[in-house]
Amino acid sequence: MKAQQALIFASLIAVGSLIAGCGGGASSNKIIYASHTENKDFAGNVFKATEAGVSGAEFEFLNSNRDVNLQIDQVMAAADDKVSAIVLIPVDADALIPAVEKANKAGIPVVATNRDLNGGDFVMVKSDDKQAGQLQGEYMAKNLPPNAKVVYLMGESSQGSAQERFQGFKEACLDKRSDITLLAKVDASWSEAEAVKYATLWMSMFPQIDGVIAGNDTMALGAMKTMLAAGRSGFLVSGVDAKGEAVEAIKKGTMHHSAKQSADKIGEQIANAINKGRAGDIQKGEVRVPFTSVTKDTLN
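and the corresponding structure tokens:
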């Protein structure tokens, strides 16, 4: 009887050990895609491409609506749930660090994309933002008339992507053609409303505007439509992203250039990092995906 009791006790301990062992590492096949904004445009296209590249997983898209505290809570909760991976488009480069570090401690692979992240262990998959600005600068340097005057709409100036895009434009255009005058450069926060506001102001200040360069298509389109509605014409417009509305405007000739990010290629690289991380090879470092120029000629 004592031998039987000892055997039963040993069996219970073994079963308990197996149950306890299930708590280590990822406990689900769920992958959290924590975005700064809603599931559309570039963020949505990257999400679709990422999802297509990962098999055997359940994806959940979380929109923080640019609320950094909400996004912190979302990532913290994902770490507690021991999801199998986290893809992050950060609202704030510094505020998300503790949440990322919590995911690191839980052994969860973290992939960041599109926006800066300043701490924790992760792999950054993003386009080469300076190259985007260089492509814009090359187009403008080639096509602007002598003694042209231009304005520049910058994304959120605290973000490296916005800074790099302007620096690329400056080096490829302003530094190459001393006859081109930069009338104004402002932080328009990637926003159409801000672009409309500044375009309206600039038209009252500057009788001559030959070029509008913007850190994304949303700002470029906002300024373009405002200036056209006011009767301005003969100015070149360049943006970034090659979103659908911008491509249509380029076809019509109201917009002239955009630097295209490949959402498919970015999603493919994110999926690659996720697949490696789920297999135990958690990635760190940076993967850069090149831009391409979109003009009326490339669309024909």
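(Above: one complete record from the training split.) Residues 1-25 have pLDDT under 50 and may be disordered.
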